[in-house]
Write a structure and sequence with these properties.
about 350 residues; alpha/beta; Nucleotidyltransferase, domain 5; 2 domains; 5-stranded mixed sheet; about 40% helix; globular; binds 5'-O-[(R)-(carboxyoxy)(hydroxy)phosphoryl]adenosine
Amino acid sequence: MNITILGIESSCDDTSAAIITDGILRSNVIASQKVHEEFGGVVPELASRAHQQNIVPVIDAALKRAGIDKSELSAIAFTRGPGLLGSLLVGTSFAKGLSLGLRIPIVDVNHLHGHVLSHFVKQSPDDVVPEFPFLCLLISGGNSQIILVKSYSEMEILGQTIDDAAGEAFDKCAKVMGLPYPGGPHIDRLASEGDPKRFKFARPHIPALDYSFSGLKTSFLYTLRDEIKKDPDFIEKNKADLAASLQTTIIAILLDKLDKAVKLTGVKTIAIGGGVSANSGVRNAIAEYCDRHHLTAFIPQRQFTTDNAAMVAIAGYYKYLDKNFCPYDLPPFARVTI
Ligand code: KG4
């Protein structure tokens, strides 16, 4: 019998629904919320309201694109956390209600597990997936973590940021450059035209495998402050070089600790995930690093880097195979845990 999972993702500002049958993706629909752009960041209450408006049409579209009726679903997987509580509540409550109506089980998914397991979403049966154990560099707007992935359910965080996430470093520096939110993709675009060696920004000295990006952010701000005093048009004239130098520093920080983790664990497979893994410089740097060290790299398609329900559906699929269902009284959770 086929196992068909509906995945629902609503942890931040993207409402997404996906259908996966026996591990193969049949549809993945994402409704992004434009309402936050003018505020320069996600406004939680507006995000919850937009999820409420989007969730029915998004799930309907996912079912239609997959060409199935809701009666064919085996289970519903939903993101239970971490994320914005109000946003999570919309997806969680909808999943519970629909499962009661359809009399099928629900499976709760940790958003971070979803990002890690996005590499197991197959679009065709021949797609190659990582072998366990592998290291996952999970880099997003909220997290920067090196995770040792031992199985579909066993994951150990070897290192993580003690302050800002890599995505925050991109976004906050972009903001002071006057770029729109989220700034990461704008830095990426500008960086391709700039000189990555033009500016030197602070690199952290943090023990073990943890990350820190707040010092880099401060040194970026100080550089701008000092230079703008001399030339008010400094940013405009130098934005490509600023972006390239910033991106290169972030990549160097990420690779430094990843390299330590590889040496410490002896693991031969590296995967990346999360919004920042869409960055062209990061993708090239990881591919080159893995080539140089004879490691296997898993770099996700861009559609699976940001929040999406395909990753929730695949994580739910493996929990479903383990009969690891969710009781109805489990509430969403906001804080990071794995
Ligand atoms: O995983 P994600 O969609 O959700 C959050 O954790 O919020 O990640 C969003 C982050 C933002 O910081 C955004 O600027 C960053 O991913 N991002 C990028 C790129 N695309 C998205 N950062 C650098 N280069 C990109 N191309």
